[in-house]
UniProtKB/TrEMBL annotation:
GO terms for molecular function: hydrolase activity. This is Alpha/beta-hydrolase. InterPro entries: AB_hydrolase_3, AB_hydrolase_fold, GDXG_lipolytic_enzyme. Keywords: Hydrolase. It comes from Zopfia rhizophila CBS 207.26.
């Protein structure tokens, strides 16, 4: 930490002085801790200094820190189903939802790796994991402390190319404690080595594995109504893409029938999950809507790139690829496919209740458009936006009262949707900075951006990214 912060000393001193004298444009909205955190993150992520290769970034952000403290972790690995149905069903959905011309790789099925997280009571924060316990025994101990039927299927953030469930235990253990339930965190395949739809195939396999445990799984079947699909940032994107995939299965099933698929030797139904809980979800891979610039003063995310991802990182063994690709996650022509960028999905009928929890951040517009679209189509949407707060602020700036409030609201939604589903209704509020007073808003009127404007902006964004690599194709 010292090595990271020492070069930032001049910035830290200048930021503290400007904040104290109310010379910063955000002094009236932020405390000093928030101002320092955002400014430092902005400088570190903004391309200043020598950028690191994708390989190095992945190596640094996917290390397992070990297990200690108030958490139970039980790791699992499920073998590939004997049938290829899940994979083929996904490809069928992708083809059906094409606008025309989208190209994508067809990944092979891989064993699913994940870990269960539960709260461990009665130990210190430094207590090591008990030795000589099998993963099944750890799961048994985890379940003995579970107090609720809430099961979170959690997808971590990291722009689809960084991080690992092991690095998210501070998040999943908090959610396990606050909900009284358990969390299933998926080690989905990362880009650019595994472009779309590899991660989505892993997400779909994980969902079915919760419903219908494969041989050797420690858990009993979990009903769909108890599953809350959750994620932050890119994990929110994967959650929304998974829901759209399942909705597409239902849209194309015979009238009145639940779609079925062969999975580990059985013909099983594919129900809609109980809910989605999205934290600062990234829903537009083209990064095309106005809030990307209008809300930049409150955020640390880098602006939409004026450089090609093909040349933005030092060359390494995984990036750039040959032939060149417009984006780390997918080929350029697929950027506006509804399962790549859920912002492009128009039909959200029959969606379960969905929580959108975010700041006044650069991704706010894409979240507003989707939330509004779902509410207008009759879906239940809980909109919770925190004034002047940056992307994923509750993860990045812990210890603030606003972050504590965020976690309480997030966990409360997950508990209510499983334990009292009838109590959840469409509602929206903006939480004012510092005072944390809630101001009600109409979820059906969150944005003035029409579908036509959004489509045009996304198309222009896709074309811009494709031009940067000469319109390269897979």
């Amino acid at each position: 930490m010292l090595k990271l912060l020492l070069p930032q000393t001049p910035l830290i001193l200048k930021t503290a002085l400007f904040h104290t004298l109310y010379l910063s444009p955000t002094s009236s909205k932020w405390d000093l801790k928030t101002e320092l955190t955002v400014k430092i993150l902005r400088q570190m992520l903004g391309g200043e200094g020598k950028p690191q290769s994708i390989t190095k970034q992945q190596r640094l952000t996917t290390k397992d820190p070990g297990v200690k403290g108030k958490v139970w972790i039980s790791k699992v690995k499920f073998e590939v189903p004997g049938e290829d149905d899940v994979r083929q069903w996904l490809f069928k959905a992708i083809e059906e939802m094409k606008h025309g011309g989208e190209l994508y790789a067809k990944p092979e099925a891989k064993p699913l790796e994940a870990e269960w997280t539960g709260y461990r009571d009665g130990v210190s924060d430094t207590e090591p994991e008990p030795p000589n316990l099998s993963e099944a025994e750890k799961y048994e101990k985890l379940m003995k402390e579970v107090k609720s039927d809430v099961t979170l299927l959690y997808f971590h953030g990291g722009a689809m190319y960084l991080l690992d469930p092991a690095t998210y235990r501070h998040v999943t253990s908090r959610l396990a404690k606050m909900t009284g339930g358990k969390v299933f965190s998926v080690r989905y395949r990362l880009s650019p080595q595994n472009p779309f739809p590899a991660a989505l195939l892993d997400a779909l396999t994980a969902y079915l594995s919760l419903l219908y445990p494969p041989a050797g799984a420690p858990h009993a079947p979990i009903p769909a109504k108890s599953i809350v699909v959750a994620g932050d940032s890119a994990g929110g994107l994967l959650s929304a893409s998974l829901l759209q995939t399942i909705l597409q299965f239902h849209r194309t099933a015979p009238s009145g029938k639940t779609p079925t698929v062969k999975f580990h030797g059985r013909e099983v139904e594919i129900p809609i999950p109980g809910a989605l809980a999205l934290s600062s979800p990234w829903l537009d891979v083209t990064r095309s809507l106005p809030s990307l610039t209008e809300n930049a003063k409150y955020d640390y995310l880098p602006p939409p790139s004026t450089h090609s991802a093909h040349t933005a990182y030092p060359a390494c063994e995984v990036w750039p690829v040959s032939p060149p690709r417009a984006d780390l996650y997918c080929e350029g022509s697929a950027l506006t496919h509804p399962l790549v960028s859920p912002l492009a999905a128009k039909d959200w009928r029959n969606a379960p209740p969905i929580l959108f929890a975010l700041g006044e951040e650069m991704l706010a517009d894409e979240d507003k458009v989707i939330a509004q679209r779902i509410a207008r189509q009759g879906g239940k949407v809980v909109w919770l936006q925190y004034e002047a707060m940056p992307h994923c602020f509750s993860l990045m700036i812990e210890g603030l009262e606003v972050s504590r409030m965020y976690w309480v609201e997030f966990a409360d939604f997950c508990k209510r949707i499983v334990e009292m589903p009838g109590k959840v209704r469409t509602e929206g509020c903006i939480v004012t900075a510092k005072s944390l007073v809630k101001r009600r808003v109409d979820v059906e009127k969150l944005s003035d951006l029409t579908d036509e404007i959004v489509d045009t902006r996304m198309r222009n964004g896709r074309e811009r990214l494709e031009r940067m690599v000469g319109g390269a194709k897979l």
